[in-house]
Structure formats: structure tokens, C-alpha cells
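ligand=2-phosphoglycolic acid
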Amino acid sequence: MKTPLVAANWKMHKTVRETLRYAHSIRDRMPTVNDVEVVVAPPFTALHALAGVFAGSAIGVAGQNLHSEPHGAFTGEVSANMLKEAGAGYVIIGHSERRHLFGETNETTNAKLHAAIKAELVPILCVGETLAERESNETFTVISRQLESGLVDISPSQATALVVAYEPVWAIGTGQNATPEQAQEVHAQIRKRLAQILSESLASGCRILYGGSVKPNNVHTLSTQLDVDGALVGGASLDVESFLEIVAKSRATTV
Ligand code: PGA
């Protein structure tokens, strides 16, 4: 049985002060049982402060993005080692907002994945189709390409910690989540594709998260699906009560 992973993606929300308030509250109230892994991805500016509060707790910290080079003249960018030293153990790679708003490609995603693995950060690789792609029956083709190109030259032994997040673009921030059946169908395809690209055993052990309008009232049915191993939560993770409820409801599915 895989330990479910619930990751909060704050996007461009919360100052350091707001982060500290949230961090103390969630750390003090998070049950200490370790049947679910919890990670929070704050903006870069709050990452070090958040990691300081979570130090010694079971809650992890993630970067929302990284640059593929270790250092250099890349104004506005942050490297894997910078994230690591600031306290991150994970990093989100290829989020659809990075792909669609900032022009990231499958190739840049692949370079970032290499950088994350080299720095021993757990990569959370995001894939997902747009509404137009779903409506023209291209969902599996698009996701298959994102996985294949994203994982170029990555060996199964390098990918042991890999986490994949299926985030249909049409479900992100829209309040319109994929149905549990839609999520399960794509997650099963992702697992099958991972087995072809990497290996059977890696695919069966890989956690595939669902993301896109996950809320306290839909997380349970989504995460009881066979191939759904947790959630990547945007809007509903910004509020402590709502995020704690999502974590609790993800935990209940493991028994
Ligand atoms: P959402 O965002 O939960 O607000 O839809 C999810 C994400 O983009 O990771």
C-alpha cells in the first residue's frame, strides 16, 4: 500500500507573515500519525520560514518551480540546490500554469526533472490536458507525450521517488473537478505508460496525485479510486481548516 501524498500548492499567495501564521497553526494541529504524507509549496520568499516552522515535524516543504541550471545569469530564477538549502524536500515541475502562462515545454520540464533528481529533491511532475484536447479525444495522446518527453533519459533508478500529478487544465481553479471515474481512467493510463517508459515495478509504486478543484467535499470519492494516491490542492489549501479536512479525508481512505 502506497502512503498517500497530499500537497498544497499555494501559487502566488501568502506573505512571510501569513505563511508563519498558517504554518504554526497547521503544525500544531496536524495529527502525528504517518499514514499520509503532507507537503506545502509556498512562494519562494516564504519557503525558508515555512521550513523552519516545519522542522522536526512530518510536514514537508516543496518549491513550486525551479531552473534547470545550478547557477548563472538567469534573472528571477531559483536552482535546485537553492531550494534544497532553503529547506525544500520536493519540487513541483511542469505545472500547467508554468506551461500555459510562462511557455514551459516538455523539454524544459525534462531538464528541470533532471536538475531536481540530481539535487535529491522529490519531483512532482504535473501533466494534464486542456478542455479542447479532451473534447477532441486527445487526452491520452497529450498525457502520454508529456510523460514520454518529460522523462527522457531518466532511468528507473533515478525515478524511484517520482510523483506524478494529473491535473486536467479545465479543472484547475474552476470549481469543476474531474469526476472520480474520469480521474481513475486517466490515472490508470498514466500508470500503464509509466510502466512502458520506466518499469513495471516503478509504475506500480509511483504515487499519482489528482489535482484540479480538490475540496473537502470531493477529496474522499476522488482518493478512493484505485489509482489515485493523493491530491495536489490549490485554492482549498490556502485555508487551514479546509486543508486539514482534506488531509483527514485522504487519510480515511487508507484504512
Ligand atoms: P486548484 O489548483 O485546486 O485551485 O484547482 C490545483 C493546482 O493548480 O495545483
